[in-house]
Amino acid sequence: MVYRYDVIVVGCGAAGISAAVYLSRAKIKTLVVGKKDESQMNEAGTIENYFGLEKVSYGKKILNVEYKKAKKYGSEFKECKVDNVKKVSDYYEIHCDSNMTYYSRYVIIATGVVIPQTIVKSLNLKLDGKIFLVDRKNATTTEKVYAVGNCCSMNKQLAHAVGDGCNAAIDIIRKELKKDLYVDYSVLEGT
Ligand SMILES: Cc1cc2nc3c(=O)[nH]c(=O)nc-3n(C[C@H](O)[C@H](O)[C@H](O)COP(=O)(O)OP(=O)(O)OC[C@H]3O[C@@H](n4cnc5c(N)ncnc54)[C@H](O)[C@@H]3O)c2cc1C
Question: How far is the CA of 180 from the centre of ligand 1 (A)?
Fold first, then answer.
């Protein structure tokens, strides 16, 4: 059996799950591969500086809320590590330490402070010092490969990671839906 997705997100932390929420709400078939318990959000303890929080909340709790949301909208999750990503004709082939292989047309790298050197070499990704080089849409120098969150930013804050996930996801959605403008707004009935 061949497992094909539109997008595979490598990394199950704040940035990766943020991307998955937007993608799955737009009905883009998305798989997130990674271990949620290894996200820095579990170490973060209490978070006070995140936009919109009325009370102090726990990093782990915030991540769980968004994980459940991404699942509710249709994102799939596999709890394993990605060993390598290779380009095979029009697809990216994602090899996991569980011995499973998945395929996707786009890849979003969201590995936090880890820069996976095997993937860097295999996809010929360019670095900017110790982080991935990306443009304003979070696209790397390799076609249909994005990087989001701590792996492409020296600004190691939750708000930045979540914003990156949104940014990359919306760029992919715009391309897939062939729209210059795409917005994900919830509008109250009757307004
Ligand atoms: C002690 C501490 C306190 C903090 N407090 C705050 C705060 O108060 N406010 C704030 O804004 N920010 C805070 N942060 C920062 C915040 O937690 C991070 O900015 C945020 O988690 C970054 O999100 P990310 O998705 O880039 O990385 P992470 O959330 O760390 O997620 C990275 C994911 O990638 C996975 N991964 C890595 N390699 C692979 C691979 N090869 N295959 C598959 N998966 C892989 C990991 O397992 C993990 O799931 C704190 C961080 C720490 C450590």
Answer: 31
Angstrom CA distances, 151 to 15, 35, 53, 148, 156, stand at 10, 16, 25, 6, 9
- Mutation probe of ligand 1 site: the residue of 111, 114, 138 with most atoms within 8 A of C-beta: 111
146-185 tens-digit pLDDT: 999 999 999 999 999 999 999 999 999 999 999 999 999 9
Would the CB of 81 count as within 6 Å of ligand 1? yes
Residue 168 parent element (H or E): helix 158-177
pTM of the predicted model, to two decimals?
0.97
Domain ranges of the chain: 4-177
CATH fold, domain 4-177, is FAD/NAD(P)-binding domain (3.50.50)
